[in-house]
Design goal:
alpha/beta, about 40% helix
Amino acid sequence: MKTSERLDRLPPYLLAELERKISEKQARGIDVISLGIGDPDTPSPAEVVSALATAAADPSTHQYPSNRGRPEFRNAVADFYERRFGVELHPENEIVPGLGAKETIFNLNLAFLDPGTCALASDPGYPVYSGGPALAGADYVPMPLLPARELAPALSAISAGDAEQARLMFVNYPNNPTGAIVPDGFFTELVEFARAHDVLVVHDASYTETTFDGYVAPSFLETPGAKEVGVEVFSLSKGWNMTGWRTAAIVGNADAVQAYWKLKTNIDSGMFEAVQLAAIAALEQATDFPREMSAKYERRRDMVVSALREIGVEVAPPRGTIYIWAPVPEGHTSASYC
Ligand SMILES: *Cc1c(COP(=O)(O)O)cnc(C)c1O
């Protein structure tokens, strides 16, 4: 059997590889504490579970969903953005549900990239930022996150050729895996760069609700001009412990949201409407849940940071996300040190 060149070009998915190693150890009777994939380890909010149970019993949810999402879902996302970020979104054309941030980010690659074009992406970064362009037959250009710039990339270091070919730029704050929060002024720089080079900024907002020490993370769309040049992919996975539910939304620039929607109508048939109703319960009823989870992660963060310091690994406590980013000692790679 011959698989496609586009599939052959892909390295094994990092986290799938870790899962394989973990099962191998478990099969040998070893009790493994996984520090691999970021996946909340406590249940989804009770309000969400009961909203799903009620909605699943309602036959109006049983047919094909609309790829645009139920109006109630889009309205709930718009209300959340208004309340939480002070960002105004039009539910008719600036919001479409996505089956998780992973699917949404991947499909943006198919909607925007051609061979000969590229996506610029934060490096280190979520694997789909590089796998997505590869599967779209396009190029991926890493933008190193620089400690000297508080873990922002240097946009001035992007070559004129790459800037010319770029159609997408993937950024993510609070950041996986570094735990960095967005440096002051960086979102404004992004808007200017995107305008100058006609690039669509895709802000992966998976961790805006997971923050510590009183820090409140902004939406990229709060930045003046952001909606002209960008979209945000907002996921309920991490903030509301809903990784299994596949609930996200793409919001922002109407042309980009509609391009994603057009592609999606040819690929899948949307989000189960009962799940959309459960996601509304998360946004409207389980409003304190992300703060409660953040308090729990903050306690865990402090334990991990002090344990690492005790063994001589100096780390700055992150102000967001569920990750710790630590330098490895001289003479090691990350994998060899782990
Ligand atoms: C977890 C994660 C995702 C995937 O989220 P889903 O909505 O569950 O698909 C995307 N981006 C980053 C940075 C993540 O950490």
